[in-house]
Structure formats: C-alpha cells, structure tokens
Design brief:
This protein is of the alpha+beta class and 266 residues long. The chain has a single domain, classed as DD-peptidase/beta-lactamase superfamily (Beta-lactamase, 3-Layer(aba) Sandwich), CATH 3.40.710. It is 36% helix and 21% strand. It has nine helices and nine strands. The chain has a seven-stranded antiparallel beta sheet, sandwiched between helices. It has a two-stranded antiparallel ribbon with strand order 4-5. It is globular. The termini are far apart.
Length: 266
C-alpha cells in the first residue's frame, strides 16, 4: 500500500510538472495576443523543437487552405500545372466576395490570393483516385478525403474530412524539404518560389495561410504553415489559432512573424 501511494504521488508530480510550453520558455506569451495558439518550430540543423501548447499542437483539425501546398505539388507532379507564372486558371465568370478570385490567374497569383475555385478545379482534375493515392503516400493527417473531391480540405462541422495537427504539418514539411516525398526537386523548387511571403536582411519567410469559417461566415480557425531561412539555418513551423476575436490565417501569420522577429531571425 505504501509503495502504491508513493507511486501515485510520483506520477502526479511528474505529470503536473510538465510545462504547457515545451522548449519555448523564451517565447513571450504576449506575442500570441488573445488567441489559443498551437505553435511548433523545428530547427532543421540541430533538430531542436519548440512546441507551444503540446495539447493543441497534437489536435487534428481541418487544414483549410494550407492543403494548397500539397494540392499544388500533386498538380505539378501530374503535369496539370506548369510554371509559376504561366496562364492557368480561367475565371468562370462567377463573381465572388474576394475580388482577387474574379479574374484569370497564374499559379503564383492563385496561391497568393488563395483562390478556392482554382484549387477546387485542380483537385477535380486530379480526381478522387489519384488524390487518395498521393494523400496515402505522403501520410497526410487522417488521409480522409471522403467528403468530396472539391472540398475535403475545408472545414465542415459535423462532416467527415481531412484533418491534421500542427505537429504533423511540421513533420510533413521536414520530409518535403528533405526530399523524402514523391515530388521532384523541380516541382518543390517551384513551390518554394510561390511560397515566399516576406524577406528581410535577416531571413526569408515561406508559408501558406488558411482560415476556417462558420456557416454564417465568421472566422473560427487560422493557420500559417511553412519554413524560414535565416543565418544558414532552416526552420519548419506550423501555427494554428482558435478563440479570441476573428482567428484567421492572417492573424496566425502575424503571430509567427512576431515570434521570429523577437528571436532576431526575421
């Protein structure tokens, strides 16, 4: 009985001693603003991992538009897409709320404005069978695309769909940057080219945002996923946010930029 009680006490002390911010004590929580933030950063040279809120970082949620990273790569690999600046998406004439979607677009332009209709058309051209084969090969989250070839990566409350965690996003990016995914170097180079979103004398930031909205259009989820080149080192990262006021991909990106700036990397 005494041994059992000591063991229980040890386990309680062990689990309650685990910090909510693993390897990230240097990050000021004020940088996250009002949002519940999951953030994983991996130094690809040293292997050091910074993980803010491990519980949230392990939670699988809809990838939203961050899936366009892999939708793009699959399209390039299959020859459905050409160069970054070649004509690609022919606008269907339907006016949508986001002005940037209402015109013909190159791949770079479509990626930058996150044109959902363009990438829905690409997913349909890839097709259910080929998409499922690639999703399985790369090991993307729960690999569930059963909710429809044109929408499986978008959040749909109460419905099946693709889900992935921040930790899984970073692991996948590491494999991509290591050349361990089924995509040619040429196509990965094209992707890197269109993912560049910010540059300073200290570093280059590559990424893709994603936002999830409720049925009435309110923002409920924000993602920013990508990698940073700074001082000869690459850092893979994934951030998602919920709660607060209008969690969005833009807000998640701002958090990541504040963190890297505070670390003198960007």
């Amino acid at each position: 009985m005494i041994v059992t009680m000591k063991l229980q006490l040890f386990l309680l002390l062990f689990f309650f001693a685990i910090p909510a911010c693993s390897g990230a004590e240097e990050i000021d929580r004020k940088l996250f603003g009002v949002y519940d933030t999951a953030l994983v950063i991996v130094n690809r040279s040293s292997g050091a991992v910074t993980e803010v809120n491990p519980v949230l970082s392990a939670r699988r949620i809809s990838p939203c538009s961050t899936f366009k990273i892999y939708n793009t790569l699959i399209g390039l690999q299959l020859g459905l897409l050409r160069g970054a600046d070649d004509p690609w998406y022919a606008w269907d004439g339907v006016h949508r709320d986001i002005d940037g979607w209402n015109r013909n677009l190159t791949l770079r332009e479509a990626f930058r404005v996150s044109a959902v209709p363009a990438f829905q058309a690409l997913a349909r051209a890839i097709g259910q069978e080929r998409m499922k084969r690639y999703i399985n090969r790369i090991g993307y989250g729960n690999s569930d695309i059963s909710s429809g070839i044109g929408s499986f990566w978008l959040p749909r409350p109460g419905r099946a769909g693709l889900r992935i965690s921040a930790g899984e996003q970073v692991a996948l990016l590491n494999r991509l940057l290591d050349g361990r995914l089924p995509f040619s170097r040429k196509h990965v180079k094209t992707l890197r080219n269109i993912m560049l979103v910010a540059e300073s004398p200290k570093g280059k930031l590559y990424g893709k945002t994603g936002s999830g909205r409720s049925a009435d259009g309110r923002e409920e989820l924000g993602w920013f996923v990508g990698f940073l080149e700074s001082g000869g080192v690459e850092y893979a990262f994934a951030c998602n946010i919920i709660g607060g006021d209008h969690p969005s991909g833009k807000a998640a990106r701002e958090i990541v930029e504040r963190v890297f700036s505070a670390q003198n990397l960007l």
